[in-house]
Amino acid sequence: MARLVVLLRGINIGSRNRIAMPALRDTLEEAGYEDVRTYVQSGNVVLSSKASAKQAARDVERLISDRFGLEIAVVTRTRNELAKVVERNPLRRVAKDPKRYQVSFLETKVAPKIVRELEAVAADKEEVVAVGREVYAWHPAGVARSKLWARLAGKDLGVTATARNWTTVTKLLELADSD
After folding, report:
1. Scanning 21, 101, 112, 171, which has its CA 20 to 30 A from the CA of 122?
2. Residue 163, burial from CB neighbour count under 10 angstroms (0-12, 13-18, 19+)
3. Half-sphere exposure of 82 (CA within 13 A, CB side)
4. What residues does 78 pair with on adjacent strands?
């Protein structure tokens, strides 16, 4: 069985797309997933499965639709893929505050044109690096007024994406490594 990290896009933000983590864990366990753990309320799940990461993403989307009546995009990574994301850490020289360092996890690689557009909207001290199916972004002044963050958080990247701050990314790897 492989350890998978399952990332739900846009849940439990304000009053929309509400899913209680205990109910989500129960739903996934009833569907046959094992060692199901969640981290915070924003749709971070670590579980064990015989399914591929891609198959698990589609299955979790279906389960959420059936059980909660919500259409939620899901992006998955294997434990090893997440370890490579952490190991790579291309902005480690500047990204000193893990709450302002974001990784966007993409379903597929983003088009080179989109990467250039992201680089163009980055503010003076912001940095963005796209590597494979991840976009790393450093927001030293925070995300509240960041045009880069607004673009990354929007739906116009051309691919399904969901972002997590560096604290969450490293915690999910820790959970994937624990028994």
Report:
1. 171
2. buried
3. 27
4. 4
HEC states along 121-167? HCCCCCEEEEECCEEEEECCCCCCCCHHHHHHHCCCCCCCEEEEEHH
CA angle, residues 42, 168, 120, in degrees to nearest 5: 90
74's CB contacts (< 8 A; 6+ apart) are 6, 7, 8, 9, 57, 58, 60, 61, 64
Q: What is the CATH number of domain 2-80?
A: 3.30.70.1280
Which architecture does CATH list for 82-177? 2-Layer Sandwich (3.30)
Q: Please, what is the end-to-end C-alpha distance for the chain in angstroms?
A: 13
What is the pTM (predicted TM-score) of this model? 0.95
Extract the tokens encoding 119: 């680089």
Q: Where are the domains of the chain?
A: 2-80, 82-177
- Tokens at 4, concatenated: 């998978």
Per residue in 26-83, pLDDT (tens digit) is: 999 999 999 999 999 889 999 999 999 999 999 999 999 999 999 999 999 999 999 9
